[in-house]
Each structure stands twice: as C-alpha cells, then as structure tokens.
TrEMBL record, chain B:
Membrane topology according to the record: Multi-pass membrane protein
The entry's keywords: Membrane, Transmembrane, Transmembrane helix
Record's subcellular location: Membrane
Protein known as: Methylamine utilisation protein MauE domain-containing protein
Highest taxon listed in the record's lineage: Bacteria
Domain Methylamine utilisation protein MauE: residue ranges: 37-110
Length: 298, 244
C-alpha cells in the first residue's frame, strides 16, 4: 500500500501536511480470536501472535446486545476497544458482523444480500424478536432495495440484530454540495480485516481498483485509488487518524442516509472503515456510524 | 416538401457524427466503440450515397435502437443510454426514447431522397437550413446531454471521470514523454489516480519511470525516475503495548 504513496511523493513532492483540528489521537484497538478468557484476562490470537488484554468490572461485552463475560468463548472473534490509558479492555464486541448492500432475494425471515463485487453474497437470518426493529428501517424488504444490518455470525450464517442505517433505503438524491478535498458525511464500517477503509469513489480506469459499473456515490466526493491516504476525524469523539483506501465501497456508494450520532451529518457514506479503524477513531460498532470529516489525498 | 425530406438527411448526418465522436472520445464501455464504428459508417454512407438501401438500413437501425432503449428503460434505466458516450449517463427517460423515435421517423421521411448528403449540405440556405436548425434545436431541448455537459464543465477536475485514453493522449503529446519516449516499453505496469492527477508507471532500465499527468485544463505532465520501491504494508495487526 505504501508503494503508490512513495511513487506519488517522488514525482509530485511530499503532500502538504493537513491537520484536522481540533483532533485527539486515535485509540489502538485490538482484534483477534479468543484463545482463553478468565474474569480478569482475555487471551487472543491474531495471525501467529498471542495477545493478552486485562479486563475489569467496567469492561462491557456485546454479543447481539449487552452480554456477560460468559459469552467470551474460545474460538469466537472479537474486537476490543482499550481504555483511554490503553491498559485494559473497555469494550468487547463478540462475533459482530455487518451486512450492507442490495437485496437479491427476500423471504419471511431470510434475506440474501449482494454486497458488491468485493464482498461475498451473504444470507442473513432475521429472528422473530428483531423483525419489527429491522422492518421499521427497511419497510420494503424486496429485491433491488438497499439493506443494512448489524448482526452476529453463527453456525447458520449471519443473525441480524439491529438495522445499521437510520433511514430506509429508498431516498431521493441529495442536493449538490460545493467541492473541495475536505468533505463531511457519514462513516460506517464493514466486515474487513486490518486497518483501512473502503471508499465510494475509486477510479475505474487502469489499476486504480474501482468497479466499471459502480454507481455515482450519493456524496459528491473526489476520485481516489486503492492505496490513497486520507485524514479521518470522528466529529463526535474528535479522534483522528490516517487511513488508507483498501477497496472500492461500491455498495456503500448507493446509500444516501445520514448519521445522527452527534448532530445530523450531511447525506451520504463517504467512508466505510474496517472494524479496527472504526474503533480506533472511538466508534461503537453496535451503533454503526459516526459523523466524520475526511481530508482526501496526500 | 422536398426541402423538408432533404433536411432529414442533414439532421441524421449531424446526429450520427456527434454520436460517433462522443462515443470515440469518451466511451462509457467497450460496446460503445463498436456502436461508434457503426454510426461512423452510416454517417459516411449518408454523405456519399443516396441509395435506397442506405436509407432503409438507417431507418431500421433507428427503429431497433428505439425498441432497445425501451427495453433498457425497463431493465437497467440507471445505467444511461450511452448514446453520445459517457456524457449520456443520466437515467433513461421517456424523452430519450422519444428522441430516438423521432430520428427513426426522420430516417423514414428521408426515404426516397436520391441526393447524397454531401450534395444537400452544399445548399443549406433557405428552407433546408430552417428545418435543420429547428429540428436540431428541438432535439437538443429534449436531450439530457446539454444539461449534463453544462454540469460537467462546472465539476472540478478531482470529481470528473476522465477516461484513461484521454490521459494517454495528454501524456504522449507532452515534452516529458518526448524526452523519455525512446526508453519506454509498450504498456505501463501500473496506472492509478488521485484527485486531479493520474500516475502512469513504466518499467525501464535502472528503475521505474513515473509520469504524473494533470487531469485539469493545464495538461501538465511531470516525470521522475525512481530507482527502488518497496511495497511494505502499513496495516499492522495490533499495537505493541498489548503484545506479550
């Protein structure tokens, strides 16, 4: 990923340093698979590394909702947000996944979703107790409609827990906004590994990484490529970090919703972060979004 | 009446020429290049021939195109018709179908005109010219492309879709290219874009030659030779303080 930034700097010179102020440093989230868990210590494996995170009575666990330490079972995947001092686990999300895209097939309690060319088609089971909450945000559960839920993975596929968007999918296009390489909108997350982001307007020509049939994004953001750098600030927590574009957010480009975590963001998803990057910036995976300012390029 | 029918040949000539140039300069996809070729051939035939077979073929192709647009409007309206290349990317509406239908009718009205397009175009003063201007004005009024073109001129270069072919044309016409032309092998090994710049990388003896081509109106091209580039990843797993 650094290769393109180095070549760019070689031919154009170093990009001017941009600071989104006021800004706080990012947290350093941890992700991995549970190896062992006791009331005071969580042991994870990430690749070949083993990680140990101390836990306290203040540590909160999410497993399809608020859960106890008993859900920290061996073999489950977790994302951990550390406390401000970085010494212990503040919040742990267990087996959390997100599915967003276009409905291909919809039955009474099962939905099949096309998440775009870079992500797998996914079958989502909607349990009866969560149906009313999800139907409020997705009243037209039929092929062609947008769908976005936060859920947990299980042996039978993804189990939907709550809607990931604050509005139904079928929304009129937004009015045009002025240009500039600093844009404001909504940041969401997608089930991807490592740190980085999917960006809704990756160039389709050459090796930039975009899709030939990608829709025009709802937010009028400029063109970038896989490997481009962005400065991202969570406008709710004020935490900011450098984030690299990992893939084209072709599915996210279709969403024209707003985030209402702290005030109302302008319409359109301008960035989809991996869970680690989303938590680094102070986001809550169960909430699904935060208002964001992004400085692109450089 | 003859002036009206002869004016239809000129209308078809102008529309086919614009469609051919639009699709060639800025194709939305590869299929459009094939359509551009067909329209170019039709344009040429209308210009040099008054044979009834040419008139019939033109009318039949436009009738078929009207039917195809109707199908596309039902199945994939959001992709645009691509009638004039990537500029025709707005949603297919009834007016787009009406426009092609009117052109099919114009082709029908031109049946039986024995004069070639070239001969008619030598005498566009009088009623022929009036019909030509009025019809082209009406077609423009019902077309989404003029509005799209106006919007495009207001879009800054970092938000404008620029085909790779246009970038390569700017690159090959630049002084930087002329300096390095003899050292550059056939195809670039990597091409990507960031805001108003597109980067084109060639593998040359002694390293990689990186061209940065401006996508703005200044058409600036910069170049540098990079001797060694590593591809280290930045997306490390987890912070050091929790490692044991």
């Amino acid at each position: 990923m650094l290769r393109r930034r180095r070549l760019r700097s070689a031919v154009l010179g170093a990009a001017p340093e941009r600071i989104l102020s006021p800004g706080e440093p990012p947290l350093r989230s941890v992700e991995g698979r549970i190896v062992d868990a006791s009331p005071h210590l969580l042991v994870l494996r990430y690749g070949v590394r083993e990680l140990r995170m101390p836990m306290s009575e203040k540590t909160l666990v999410w497993y399809g909702g608020r859960a106890g330490l008993g859900e920290l079972l061996r073999g489950r995947d977790v994302v951990v947000r550390p406390t401000g001092d970085g010494l212990a686990a503040d919040r742990i999300w267990v087996d959390i996944v997100r599915v967003s895209g276009t409905i291909i097939r919809a039955e009474k309690d099962v939905v099949e979703v096309d998440q775009g060319p870079h992500r797998p088609r996914t079958r989502v089971v909607i349990p009866r107790q969560n149906q009313s909450q999800i139907l409020v945000r997705h009243p037209r559960m039929e092929p062609g409609q947008l769908f976005d839920v936060i859920g947990r993975s299980s042996r039978h596929g993804v189990v939907a827990v709550k809607p990931g968007t604050a509005q139904p999918g079928d929304i009129a296009p937004p009015p045009a906004r002025p240009g500039g390489s600093v844009v404001r909108g909504t940041a969401t997350w997608f089930s991807g590994a490592g740190r980085g982001a999917a960006y809704p307007r990756v160039d389709r020509w050459g090796d930039a990484g975009g899709c030939a049939d990608a829709p025009q994004p709802c937010a009028p953001v400029p063109f970038l490529s896989v490997g481009s750098a962005m400065k991202v600030r969570n406008d709710c927590t004020r935490r900011s970090a450098d984030v690299i574009v990992l893939e084209c957010g072709c599915a996210g480009a279709r969403f024209c919703d707003r985030c209402v975590e702290c005030g109302t963001s302008p319409r359109g998803r301008i960035i989809e972060l991996t869970p680690a990057s989303f938590v680094d910036l102070g986001g809550d995976l169960a909430d699904g979004c935060f208002n964001v300012t992004v400085a692109v390029g450089g | 009446m003859d002036a009206f029918r002869e004016a239809q040949v000129l209308v078809l000539l102008v529309v086919f020429l614009l469609a051919c140039v639009g699709k060639t300069v800025s194709p939305g996809n590869r299929h459009q290049l094939a359509w551009a070729g067909l329209e170019g051939v039709l344009c040429l035939l209308l210009l040099v021939s008054g044979h009834p077979a040419v008139r019939l073929a033109t009318a039949m192709i436009l009738v078929a195109a009207t039917w195809m647009l109707g199908e596309l409007k039902t199945r994939r309206p959001e992709e645009g018709c691509g009638c004039f290349g990537s500029i025709s990317s707005s949603r297919i509406g009834r007016r787009t179908i009406l426009r092609t239908g009117l052109l099919a009718a114009a082709a029908g009205a031109a049946m039986g005109v024995s004069a070639t397009g070239a001969r008619i175009s030598l005498d566009v003063l009088g009623w022929r010219g009036v019909f030509l201007v009025v019809e082209l004005g009406f077609l423009m009024a019902i077309s989404p492309e003029p509005v799209a073109l106006l919007k495009r001129t207001r879009i800054t270069c970092d938000r404008r879709d620029v085909p790779l072919r246009a970038t390569m044309d700017v690159l090959r016409g630049s002084d930087a290219w002329k300096t390095w032309e003899d050292h550059v092998p056939g195809e670039p090994i990597e091409v990507w874009r960031e805001l108003c710049w597109r980067f084109v990388v060639f593998e040359v003896e002694g390293g990689e030659l990186v061209f940065a081509v401006s996508l703005g109106p200044d058409r600036e091209v910069r170049v540098t030779l990079v001797e060694e580039v590593s591809d280290a990843s930045e997306t490390g797993p987890n912070p050091a303080y929790v490692l044991v």
